[in-house]
Amino acid sequence: MRIDGAGFPFVAAFGVPAVVLVAGRRWRLAVPVGALAAFMAAFFRDPDRACDGTPPGADEVLAPADGVVVVAGRPEPRVAPTGDWQQVSIFLSPLDVHMNRTPYGGRVVRTEYRPGRFAAAFTGVAATDNERTEVWLAGDGGRTVVFRQVVGVLARRIVLRVGEGAQLRAGQRIGLMKFGSRMDVFVPRDCTVVVERGDRVRGGETVIARW
Fold it and tell me: What residues contact residue 16 under an 8 Å CB cut-off, 6+ apart?
């Protein structure tokens, strides 16, 4: 199992003490500490996905992360960027894969970081008040897709590994969020949303919208 580099300090923080406790035969402490090390390793796991081997169709918008769809279609009030958009939002629990991927191919024309609160990511207030990053992609034919990494009550740090001017392919790894979070994707009205609220999606594989 591949682990993202951002997770190494967390795995080591529990894994090293667990080894020491095992060596000292302090089993009652070693077991829970070892379990925490295993949880950290699982949280930062980075599995390959279909998009890593087979490029998606040029008309397809992919899920940027694993999780459950909490918004699909009409944007939440005061949440979407200026313009006429449709919204797909995905809630990531601490048990989901937290590697984030770009939902569409194109050039990054804008990134923006906004400090804020740490409300539970599945609540409506999270979309307007929580700390987040926003990325604007310009694709072929003048198509624009916007996506956001939004932290939650447990997630306290956003990792974004792309900047303005980067040329991305759909499904490319772009960062992660630590310990429970949400991703919002905004597509124009001429793009059809093909998922519904309650659907479970897989980052880099599930098609969430299509031109």
Answer: none
